[in-house]
Design brief:
This protein is α/β, with parallel strands linked by helices and about 260 residues long. The protein has helices spanning about 195-200, 205-220, 225-230, 235-240, 240-250; strands at about 5, 10, 15, 20-25, 30, 35, 40, 45, 50-55, 60, 65, 80-85, 90, 95, 105-110, 115, 120, 125, 130, 135-140, 145, 150, 155, 160, 165-170, 175, 180-185, 190-195. It is elongated and about 65 Å long. It starts with a strand and ends in an 11-residue tail after the last helix.
Amino acid sequence: MTTAIHPTAIVEDGAILGDGVEIGPFCHVGPRVRLGEGVRLISHVVVAGITTVSARTRIFPFASIGHEPQDLKYKGEESTLEIGENCTIREHVTMNPGTAGDNNRTVIGNNCVFLAGAHVAHDCVLGNNIIFSNSVMVAGHCKIADNVILGGGAGVHQFCRIGKNAFIGGMAGLENDVIPYGIALGNRAYLGGLNIVGMKRAGISRESIHNARNAFKHIFSGEQTVQEAANSIDAELAKDPVVTEILDFLRSDQERALCTPR
């Protein structure tokens, strides 16, 4: 496959371009950037810093990828941004590399979609098949698992965790962790139940959905604390893999409080 670079684009010496890369009009690619096979920069895209964009990812006009973090503690240390394969990054999206205050890297998985105006801050770790709707804002150090969808205009506080297959409603202001398969709504966001639509789309069985509903009710509806309820859940129920994933999430270390029902 032939690499195609528009005459108005600037590709700095040192940049590494895979087979079939297309760089459109008025793009700028920095000297420490790697573009994988078949990556397309449509036009007016800037990719800077120590940034890797993996195969077949497409980046649309006026996206700013890999510039220094928006963190006042950043002092110019070397850090990286890694973007997976088959991602779609639409207009005016911004993505920042990591900082020395964490692991010096921001990581984005495969098959993710970032619609216009979305922001991924420094030191975030994103899984696969994630969708950021328009103007989603995710602050630093957040961890977002596979198959999460964030509705338009949602804002996520730094250090939050969002579990697998969760859904964050449009305009939500999320300041706490969201369990796997949870649905968070409102500003400030509360846990509105389980993301049943997302669970069905993910092919989760009716039995597991039923078990997850029972676990949710036990954990969040009684007199016990969340941790007490998680530890006292029925042993048979806890064997369900979806329930196990929720329980593991609740028991793991966390920087933020937990998003709970009203």
